Amino acid sequence: GASAVGTFAIQFASLAGAEVIATCGADNLGYVQSLGCAQAIDYRAQDIGQAVRAWSPGGVDLVLDCVGCGSLPGALDLLSPGGMLVAILTLVAGDAGPDYAEAARRGLRTALTYSKMPSGGNLGKIAALLADGRVRPPRTETLPLEQVAAAHDLLQSGRAKRKLVLQVAGDD
After folding, report:
1. Burial annotation 73-87 (CB, 10 A radius, 16+ → b, else e)
2. Closest CA relative to residue 59, chosen from 24, 13, 108, 102
3. d(CA 161, CA 167)
4. Sign, Cα dihedral of 55, 58, 59, 60
5. Helices 4-15 and 120-131 meet at what angle, rounded to 10?
6. 3 state SS of 45
7. Residue 81: enclosing H or E segment and its boundaries?
8. Distance between the two ends of the chain, CA-based, in angstroms?
9. Which of 20, 34, 93, 125 is the most buried (most CB within 10 A)?
């Protein structure tokens, strides 16, 4: 929930009237709740399946997996009958997404997507939501290009607390 995709997804879903539950590390629980998340799960300390079932015993209507690589085991078990799992594949070798045959057998829906550029119209709508303050952008930190190795290490280790932006040229 604290990733850039999660930051936007929580806010868009909340604006649409959905009740949102999201996973994040303990240090981000307050952050995701400030975005409109009704329930935040510390994925390091809590059993995700148990927490979701306690919050919504009949399952949830939609699961958005924006991490991939098997980071959300039992995702299909979290869904209510007719629910949908949307997986954003990471393009990491071996990230095949959900078990589509099992989802179909259970009467669940799945959607698979890769990151792609949204349409101009949708970008305009997002820009308007950002401009009027109804949606906040993800947290960012700008680093000079010379620190690209350090930035990569932060991302690989999972210690990055913000989206990292590399400054390629000066402000002049």
Report:
1. eebbebbeeebbbbb
2. 108
3. 18
4. negative
5. 80
6. coil
7. strand 79-88
8. 36
9. 20
CA distance 82 to 168: 47
Confidence (pLDDT) at 110: 86
**pLDDT tens for each residue of the chain, 172 residues long:** 988 889 999 999 999 999 999 999 999 999 999 999 999 999 999 999 999 999 999 999 999 988 776 678 789 999 999 999 998 876 666 777 788 888 899 999 888 766 566 677 888 898 999 999 999 999 888 899 999 998 888 877 766 778 888 999 876 6
Could you tell me the pTM of the whole model?
Answer: 0.81
The confidence score (pLDDT) of residue 121 equals: 82
Residue 1 CA to residue 82 CA, distance in Å, equals 23
List the strands of the sheet with 79-88, edge to edge: 60-65, 79-88, 109-113
Which is nearest to 167 in space by CA: 153, 147, 150, 139?
147
Report the C-alpha gap between 11 and 75 in whole angstroms.
21
